[in-house]
Amino acid sequence: MRLVFDGAALVSNWQALGWLSEPASAGAAVKADGYGLGARDVVARLSAAGCRDFFVAHWAEAQALAGLVDPARISVLHGIAPGEEALAKAIGAVPVLNSTDQIARWRSMGGGTCHVMIDTGMGRLGLDWREDVAGHCTGLDIDLCMSHLASADEDSAQNETQRLRFDEVRTGVSARRYSLANSAGIGLGSGYRYDCTRPGLALYGGVPCGALAGIINPVMRIETRVLQVRQMQAGDSIGYGATFTAPAAMRTATLSLGYADGFKRGLSGIGGFAHNGARLPLLGRVSMDLTCIDISAAPDLGEGDWITADFDLPAAEAATGISQYEWLTQIGRRFERIWVD
Ligand SMILES: *Cc1c(COP(=O)(O)O)cnc(C)c1O
């Protein structure tokens, strides 16, 4: 089993998001190990292409990028929790301060360049936009003043509400740069771009909104091998629960790939593979380590042959209801990982 990552597509997605973000510059959200692709592989390529701002959630994720980029270019979205002060100082990445407690902790550590998150309606992290945000931030050396959109991938009135709140509050906050948009936010138009955008999903081939369709290219391909070819008779069933019964004699293949690899059971009866232009549908349930397919349309396919999943993120989300974010971040750890370019 292997995941094949297209480095050129990763870079061209980032460049396309950068052009769309102009005059703002596009950074890159690389939390959760680069959405499952491998943060070091992603950061090395995007940094070489000119990306200057990288966003992780945890300090350990910043630490894992050691030696690749200047830590001053890495933002830690969760900020600083009690007990993390020494680690934060040692790593030297920049905290996103989310609360008055975090601001106080940063000041007591001696301060320095930081970022600040304002909650304009997401209701998760950040200084409440109705508070005295300007007062809380007085004297801080703020690089990015940011907020995060809750409904950017929907045509929702909440986007404009958040943008207006951000504008109202940010004017009182002295920062070098302002930032609001994630991937889908970039598609909302020039009013959302400010100085820096923070795409994640779309870098990796996810398409969160219609505005990015046709612009973003797939980055990840799932390949595996045929473990066994079988000749089924009419009436034979396949897999747990015997949910598929062969209506006639047919050739099937059993593949090394299952839900433990992030190839989720929700693809049962929906997913398929591709081989020399033929589509080979899944049969029965996806199990933990194995998946069965109909290979009637690929008579040359034999044991040991490599085969490619007919898989793309937007289609998988549409077919299963499992979000593109979950498909990526829950991809399995048993794959060999190969970067081309
Ligand atoms: C994860 C994250 C992003 C990236 O969002 P995408 O929807 O993946 O583009 C941007 N900003 C913040 C604060 C985030 O947590």
From TrEMBL:
Keywords: Isomerase, Pyridoxal phosphate. Residues 219-340 form the Alanine racemase C-terminal domain. Belongs to the alanine racemase family. It comes from the Bacteria. It catalyses: L-alanine = D-alanine. It comes from Blastomonas aquatica. It holds the Pfam family Ala_racemase_C. This is alanine racemase. Its cofactor is pyridoxal 5'-phosphate. It is an enzyme of class 5 (isomerase). PANTHER family: ALANINE RACEMASE, ALANINE RACEMASE, CATABOLIC-RELATED. The keyword Isomerase applies. Gene3D superfamilies: Alanine racemase (3.20.20.10), Lyase, Ornithine Decarboxylase, Chain A, domain 1 (2.40.37.10). InterPro entries: Ala_racemase, Ala_racemase/Decarboxylase_C, Ala_racemase_C, Ala_racemase_N, Ala_racemase_pyridoxalP-BS, PLP-binding_barrel. Its EC number is 5.1.1.1. NCBIfam families: alr (TIGR00492). The keyword ATP-binding does not apply.
